[in-house]
Amino acid sequence: MTDPQQPSPTTPVNAEGVVAALDLPQPAYRVLFALRSRSEPGGRVEMGQSQIAALLGLSRPSVTSGLRELILARLVTKQRNGVYRINAMLAGYEWGSAEVSPKAAST
């Protein structure tokens, strides 16, 4: 018998609810929402820590600390300096929504 309180495997995940349930410091939430609002399809963001700090009016150490919290929570990964990827669950697009060109599909 299944537990009615547990979502079924096909139930969509409410990503905002998951993030809200985390106990992150306020700068981490601000950094996450700034990255998310500027992400490309797939969650890729090209934005340095100084740019994030200027955008949010935070100190660079606050941004660094916020990013560290997001990385530890596996909400963001650092690909290289100034390039981050938001967890696919939060990236703001649906899987399979991008069209594939015939040329890309044949390679």
UniProtKB/TrEMBL annotation:
<dbReference type="InterPro" id="IPR036388">
    <property type="entry name" value="WH-like_DNA-bd_sf"/>
</dbReference>
<feature type="domain" description="HTH marR-type">
    <location>
        <begin position="23"/>
        <end position="81"/>
    </location>
</feature>
<dbReference type="InterPro" id="IPR036390">
    <property type="entry name" value="WH_DNA-bd_sf"/>
</dbReference>
<protein>
    <submittedName>
        <fullName>MarR family transcriptional regulator</fullName>
    </submittedName>
</protein>
<dbReference type="Pfam" id="PF12802">
    <property type="entry name" value="MarR_2"/>
</dbReference>
<dbReference type="InterPro" id="IPR000835">
    <property type="entry name" value="HTH_MarR-typ"/>
</dbReference>
